[in-house]
Amino acid sequence: MTKVTRFALHHRRLVVLAWILLAVAGGVTASTTTNGLSHSVATPGTAGSESNQHIRKRFGLDGNEQPGIGLLRLPPGQTMQSASGQAIAARTFDAAHRAGHLGVADFSTTHDPKLISRDARTTWALIDMPNPDIPIGAGVLQRIQPALRAAAPAGASVTVTGFEPLQSAGGGGGGSPSVLVETLIGALAALVILAFVYGSAIAIVPLLMALPSILTTFLLVLGLEQLITVNNLVQYLVAFIGLGVAIDYSLLIVTRWREQREGGLSNEDAILAAGATAGHAVILSGITVAVGLLCLLVLPVPFLRSIGLGSIMIPLVAMGAAMTLLPVTLAAWGPALDSKRVRRGSTTLSLAWERWGGLVVRRRWIAGIVGLAIMIGLALPALSMKSGQASANALAAGGGPAAEALHEIEREGMPSAVVFPVQLLAHGGRAGAARAASVARETPGVYTVLAPATASFRQGQDTLLSVIPSAEGNTSAGRALIGTLRARLAGVPGGVEVGGNTAEVTDFNHVVYGNFPLMLAVLALLTFLLLARAFRSVVLALKAVILNIISLGAAYGFLVLFWQEGHGSNLLYGVPAIGAIREFIPIIVFAFLFGLSMDYEVFVLARIREEYDRTGSTNGAVVRALGRTGRLVTCAALIIAVSLLSLSVNPDIIVRLIATGLAAGILLDVVVVRTLLVPALVALMGRWNWWMPAGLARVLRIAPSDAALSLGGP
Predict the structure, then answer these.
(1) pTM for this prediction
(2) How far is the C-alpha of 158 from the C-alpha of 142, rounded, in Å?
(3) Measuring CA to CA, how many Å separate 317 from each of 40, 216, 256, 295, 346?
């Protein structure tokens, strides 16, 4: 690392000019970058995704997009038992086509009596739409209700419900501050924490490193967009995780720089010494985060791969800024900024954390047991995690006309699963469609099948049918129905494809989570080897990987408790229990949290290893390492957590879940794991912490350290 630091210091103007050009280019093209992002979460290659793609090509409707549900209450004196009442309903629902390209399945097109209330005063229709993220589907949903109301006669009432209207009413939609505003909120909160850490004007420096890091990463994402389709979640991850990671890496180096200067070194010598020590930890941390994100690249899901590729740039760019631009900044303005202090004395050594380290070492068994109990207790709820869309009634708990409309049709016997229908694409002409509808109606778990006889649902030999299940797709019964329908429809002439959101989610879970144990094992092995080489210890590396997995389980447990079961989500965000976690959120949380939480373990263990090499005392190394890194690691975690929590004000429920899941995981990791479990377990293992067998040492091309076992005492 010293060579990189020397190069940067010897070519200061070149380094500064390069970062300025990259940052300016990233800022100028930022809007182009964000406009080019995609909202697609399709899983190409799976049966459900391919079926939905065929539906889009043949009918212009999105099988994966939940339909709207129009509810019409006829004027007084009119019922669906009369020809005039049926004519009113037919004219009203037909007017929905004025909103744009869509397909309407109502009583007039299906003659299904299950679309009529018991008193025959109310009727409803399923309205399939194109994807709202493409031009043909933009704004269609918002125009449906005005179109229906304009066509309804005096005395009639019209309401539109469905997944999107319910999600908007339940806190998942509406206006929101821009990514820029949310980033500024996170940056201001980070500045407050940095001011507390440093107590001087040097606090501004890590924040200054974050700006070119974020803008440069956006520029690289723009380049990536020229090669592949990139998911829109990348913009949030670059802005907020980029902010936190860039600040954390700079925070570590600046803190070590101050420590070296307090030890009597000149400014340049302190910069070189910080690069040789803290810089090594930053490089190891950046590589570890990147390795964690590799799991997204090996998955056969394009939108997850794009998130992985875009996100890998975050730690790499932040690492580059910390190793090149930061030394130049410290050389030019470091001493001057650091001299403007609001408090005197050492700001790198915390006596309170040193005392805490001593207490944990003395009470190592208690600390270890308490820490494990907390983390395992929080991880247990993760076993009840449900994967899929939020339940309709959970979203409806937010109230409003859309919720009232859903509850009304539920009282009439229609299951809430009407919000998540299964789509069938029958290829056998009218006879094949009729046979498919008949088989589907006779399938256990099916409430009804809508088979409209209109051009919107029939093109040549192809027919689109909507199956209303009895159970929602986020339940075991709802997911099982997909396999049952595929098996029963296999013999229908012409063939029948099973699509819809539930089919795509079911296939996603099979493709991604079916291989998850193998992926976790490979990732854990890579991380173990990386850390074993860095720490020259089998025990420290193995302990780091195991504790990281425990932290991940606790983060999943938080998602279940807070969002799925609603213990706090309604109070803090106005969102009731959502009943299920979107299928791709756990894998994204895993990819980021595995690397980010490892960051802090690297910071702590690297310092413990350094202190042990200097003194030969394990207990002394733990105490001194916590004294030097305890406040640093805690504040670094707070910065990332605050950055993510500022993102959680975004109304997109998916963004909220990712942001809060990562923030909770990081806070739990740093508060419980790094300050309780890590020092307690290192103290418990004593001299065995430094064991490195000769065989593995040869493979990793490092010196064996099993000689440490001959040391007396801890």
Answers:
(1) 0.82
(2) 14
(3) 26, 7, 21, 19, 31
